[in-house]
Each structure stands twice: as structure tokens, then as C-alpha cells.
Amino acid sequence: MSDLPTLPVTFRPGRTRAVLLSAGVVIFLVISGVALLLEQLGPGEKLSFVVTGALIFWVLALFARVRVVADDSGVTVVNIAGRRRLDWAEILRVNLRPGDAWVFLDLSDGTSLPALGIQPGIDKKQAIADARTLRALAEARSIRDPEAAPGTDQG
Question: Is residue 24 within 8 Å of residue 57, measured between CB atoms?
Fold first, then answer.
């Protein structure tokens, strides 16, 4: 298939990432600014405001770090609290059904792995295109026998 992207390719929710990081910076600056402007607060209280703003930014940055990286040997899924490396042969199917918050990868061990790096939240068209691209990459790079895997229709 000639319309596949050159590897490595990274899928991430770009608009969602921009919103999360921007909100994190604004929240940190506002909370820190309030702490500095409130003269009745002591140094410890001001510091607690700044630390709280930093923690909020850190949590939003964790949400913003999600991605799916496809390369020649497989896929790395980076979610909020973890990272998992998969060989292409481990991915049986890439699913993004109507109503799904993100892509799910059906794996050869019988489990399903959420891949938060492709999510239709803010940019549905981009998420659908990314899911189709990842599905095509998985199908093109899979070492499975197509006759041995019935029921792998596109959906």
C-alpha cells in the first residue's frame, strides 16, 4: 500500500494536547499570581499555592503526553500512567467505534489495550484518519496468515 506514511510516525491528539498544556500554564500562572498578590498570606501559604498550581499543571501534562508511536518493529503506546511496547504481530485489530473515547487495540493474548494517543474528543476527523492509518499499518506489517484469522473484517 503506497499511501502508508513513512515510519516512524507518531499519533497524538494535537488539539487536545494544546488545550491541556495551555490550560495548565494559565492555571499555574493564575494560582501563583494570586498567591503573590495576597499580602496577608505567609511565605509557607504562598508556597503551597505555587505547589498546588504546579501539581495541577503536572497532572494536565500527564494527560497531554499520550501518544502512539509506530516504527518498523512495532508500536509503542504511551498512556497516562504507563508505556507498552508491542510487536506488529501482537496487534490483531485497531478499533475506533462510534462513541469510543479512544482507539482500542485487540491483542493476540486476548486482551484489549486502550491507545489514548488517538482520540476523537476535539478533532474527530483527525482521530478517524489516524485510526485508519494505524489499522492499515498493522495489517500491512502483520505476519499472520489471513486465512487463519477469520472475522477480521473492517469496521
Answer: yes
| Residues of the chain where predicted confidence (pLDDT) is lower than 70 | 1-2, 143-155
136: number of Cβ within 10 Å: 16
How far is residue 109's CA from residue 146's CA, in Å, rounded to a whole number?
Answer: 18
pLDDT tens by residue, 81-105: 999 999 999 999 999 999 999 999 9
- Beta-bridged to residue 105, according to DSSP, are 94, 113
DSSP letter for 147, please: G
Write the burial class of residue 68 (CB in 10 Å: 0-12 exposed, 13-18 middle, 19+ buried). buried
Helix, strand, or coil (residue 41) = coil
Nearest C-alpha neighbor of 124 from the set 16, 24, 41: 16
Amino acid at the residue 134: L
Question: Considering the entire predicted model, what is its pTM?
Answer: 0.81
